[in-house]
Design brief:
alpha/beta; 5 helices; about 45% strand; globular
Length: about 350
């Protein structure tokens, strides 16, 4: 189906309730703009293969739109890569769009670092983690603070495959993320962590779907946000367990830290369970900075800004505590620490 054949989704649709399509679109909703390609660069020992555009495989409006913008398109094959792979994705111009397909066989650690000063950026990442393979993946968004950003991801985890998926969202003015993972084989497992630091008038909408199609599968989602200024964060999670997918173990937790009276945060976990013998749990909480923690730190010589920064750092870093890969955890925490230190110096 072509983009113009897809009706604009109403705000009653769960995915577009808080960030309607016309607010994230780069121009008028009926226009497909001319796009520059996102420039992907990586180490010399790993090959990014440029590909031509193929027929869209989804009728979902955001994915179809990104496909028809005709930005850059690459394939990446990872087969038992011992060293972490770092991909720098650079955006520029009025509209910048790119897609990347990842095939994983064996074990690999992958980081995608998105930067640049576009007015609008869109990225679509797809991937398959093949049977008995492992992917440890981190995505860091450090776009310019004035950019609009649309990110779609689709992951296929096959039999006995495992994935750790970490997001660090620091940049952009209005961001919409839609990450969907399908556990398509017995023994598949997913650990997912999302950390968002929102400031000023930033709007960050993170939507996650995890679909358990087979039994004896596992997923764990943790999403932490810290919201200052008049920022607005939305975290939505849809967790589905198919009929007959018994012995599934799944959970999702959303935590929001409000740093000002004007900051807002929404946490909307959802469960759809059609199997009988499963473990499924969810939780959500939003609160301001603990005054007792502030008092404790200030009584030991820290000024209010340093004390709050320490609390925020500990809270945001805690989102990565459900991960197990040392290289992934250290890289994400290092990127976050550098960002928070630069923010404190402004």
């Amino acid at each position: 189906m072509m983009y113009h054949q897809i009706p604009i989704p109403p705000r009653s649709e769960h995915l577009w309730r808080y960030t309607p399509w016309h607010r994230i679109h780069p121009s008028k909703p009926d226009v497909i703009p001319s796009a520059d390609g996102i420039v992907f660069k990586t180490q010399d020992n790993v090959s990014l293969i440029e590909t031509s555009s193929t027929e869209p495989t989804s009728s979902e409006i955001a994915r179809t739109f990104l496909h028809e913008c005709e930005g850059s398109s690459y394939n990446l094959s990872l087969d038992n890569i011992t060293e972490p792979i770092h991909i720098n994705a650079r955006c520029s111009g009025h509209v910048s769009v790119g897609s990347l397909n990842v095939e994983v066989k064996g074990s690999a650690v992958l980081f995608i670092h998105l930067t640049g000063e576009p007015e609008w950026a869109g990225i679509h990442i797809t991937g398959t983690v093949h049977p008995n393979s492992q992917l440890f993946y981190g995505f860091i968004n450090e776009l310019d603070s004035n950019a609009k950003f649309l990110r779609c991801e689709d992951w296929n985890l096959q039999r006995d495959a495992s994935m750790e998926n970490a997001t660090l969202s620091l940049g952009g003015f209005r961001c919409k993320t839609d990450i969907r993972s399908s556990l398509n084989g017995t023994g598949a497992s997913l650990r997912q962590a999302i950390t968002v630091n929102a400031n000023g008038a930033q709007h960050d909408d993170e939507h996650v779907e995890i679909h358990h199609h087979h039994g004896h599968t596992y997923s764990d989602l943790v999403m932490n946000s810290a919201c200052g200024g008049s920022s607005h964060f939305i975290g939505t999670g849809l967790l589905t367990i198919a009929e007959g997918a018994n012995k599934t173990d799944a959970s999702q937790v959303f935590r929001n830290l409000l740093l000002s009276e004007k900051a807002r945060a929404e946490a909307i976990p959802e469960l759809e369970v059609l199997a009988d013998d499963v473990s499924a749990a969810h939780g959500a909480a939003s609160a301001p900075v603990d005054s007792e923690q502030m008092h404790y730190l200030m009584s030991r010589g820290l000024n209010p800004d340093d004390a709050q920064s320490m609390i925020v750092s500990g809270f945001l870093n805690d989102a990565f505590s459900n991960l197990t890969n040392t290289a992934l955890i250290e890289e994400m925490r290092t990127r976050l620490t550098v960002h928070l230190e630069c923010e404190l110096k402004r």
